Amino acid sequence: MAEKNLSEHLNKISKDIRRYIELKFDYLKAETVEKIVEVYSRIILWAILGMVFSFVFLFLLIALSLYLGKLWGAWYWGFLATSAGALIIALIILLMRHTLITNPLLRIFLSIFFNLDKNERQKNISKSKKS
Question: pTM of the entire structure?
């Protein structure tokens, strides 16, 4: 009788453990999907904002080119000057890409995937810079 009772308890514990593992796995899958959706939604948002900003910046550069061209007496001087300015800005962004792009993205993705607080993110960024 005791063996049967023990066997039933062990069988129930085994089923409970399997169910717990299944639930934990389902939870991890749901959490992963949530994180992926959050990342994709941020990427889409920033892509849309980037396109809008690019169009605004382009039209501002054209307006500045036309103004400078009118001011200097030849349209091509205005376009040459604004093209040079845009090239300088692009070179500055290229040289500072780690500070302006890589590190902020790393902080964002670390905070999304690992729910890290600010101190832990700074430690991870410092580690990634060293390697």
Answer: 0.58
